[in-house]
Amino acid sequence: METGRDSGCVCSNGCGCESNVSDSNITISVTPTTGGQFDLAVTKTDSIENLKKLISKKLKVPKERICLLHRERQLRDGTVQENHLVNGSRLTLLPSVETGLLVSLHLIYFNKTIV
Q1: What's the confidence (pLDDT) of residue 77?
Q2: Cα separation, 42 vs 24, whole angstroms
Q3: What pLDDT, on the 0 to 100 scale, is given for residue 113?
Q4: What is the mean pLDDT of the segment spanning 19-25?
Q5: Domain containing 45 — which CATH number?
Q6: Which of 42, 43, 73, 94 shows a CA-CA span of 20 to 30 A to 82?
Q7: H-helix or E-strand containing 103?
Q8: Model's pTM, two decimal places?
Q9: Residue of 14 and 97 predicted with greater confidence
Q10: DSSP strand E in the chain: where?
């Protein structure tokens, strides 16, 4: 008789099934506001940080510049599952403005009004 380990089962039960593994894999569609669309294969336990890293590598953009929206809500932390992403979910990728420029403009404005 074949055991879970011999059959290639990777679920924690060692039962020989592979359904638990395939259920945790999902495909998410990412649409940048600049155009185009691509799909990413992730697991439900992947963090949003890891999702941003995958997108960062694909688009060659720093992950700090990536802002993801799902149903008009920004994804900041947690896992794919905690953010209610399912197979076929669509994310919108927004360009993230560098805060350094905004802080500089803000300081310049207030320095002029104070002086």
Answers
A1: 95
A2: 8
A3: 43
A4: 62
A5: 3.10.20.90
A6: 94
A7: helix 99-114
A8: 0.64
A9: 97
A10: 25-32, 38-43, 66-70, 73-75, 90-95
